Each structure stands twice: as C-alpha cells, then as structure tokens.
Amino acid sequence: MYFNQQWAAEHRPAADTRLIKDIKKAINAEYSTIACYDKLAGNAPTQQEKDRILEIQKDEKRHLKEFSSIYEALTGSKPSYKITETCPDRIIRLTRILDISG
Fold first, then answer.
1. What Gene3D superfamilies would the database entry show (predicted)?
2. The pTM is what?
C-alpha cells in the first residue's frame, strides 16, 4: 500500500492538526529547557549543584524523547528541534551571585 504523507497532511482533521502543533510546541519548549539547564549546569557553584541540575535535565530529555515519539507516530516524520525560549539571564546571574556569596 502506498502512503502519501503530503496528501495525508493536507486532509488531516483540524483536531489532529491542532494536536500536532501543540506537540511541536511542547517539543521546542523541552528542547529550549534542556539548553537552559546546560547553561545553568555550567554556572553551578558546586559539583553537587551541577549534578542536581543535570539530574533534572535528564527528565526534560526523557520528555523530549516521548513527545518526539508521539510526533513521529502522528506525522510519519521526525521533528526538527528549535530553541524557542531563551534561558533568562537573571537565572544565570543568580547562579553566579550564589557562587560569589557561597
């Protein structure tokens, strides 16, 4: 049986289209959060705090993998990843302040 992804995408019910958009948004939010945790871990004042941040990041990576699998199951293609949210500078500055005062 031949499956035409373009035709399927054009004739997908509106609810499915909305769901796919929402999942894509969640994928990019998780991807952005993972990047933020990288920055935070790089500025962690102690190894213990860095380890905690990286442990939290593992959950975000798991979420990203799960959302990506759902997206692929619905669309038949792998998602592209894009940072859509930046890590707030105030959080980075806070980790630096904690390092100075700690």
1. 1.20.1260.10
2. 0.73
